[in-house]
Amino acid sequence: PKIYGKTYDDARKILIKEGWQPNNRHQTHEDTVDVKSGNGPIFWKRGYWELDSCSGTGLAPCRFGFIDPSERVLVIITEGEEAEDGEYHAKVSRTFLKSKS
Length: 101
What we know:
With 101 residues, the chain is α+β, with helices and mostly antiparallel strands. The chain is 20% helix and 27% strand.
């Protein structure tokens, strides 16, 4: 799906509608430095447990994972700050497929 440049919230809705499922991490992943950095706490609080990691420096990139019925893994990278109140959003800057591991 064409999600480049969209907010993560919008991209996520499109992906789910197209049959991609969030590749959810275990709830304990919330306590890792990968989630506690940058926009991580905001996305995790929204229930986006497909969050792999976020950085609090530079362009504030975050990495998310989805899986489709044929077990392809789609990685989504966002950049930019995300406000809890929705005033501004991180946007999808890159996507790529990788083998399931």
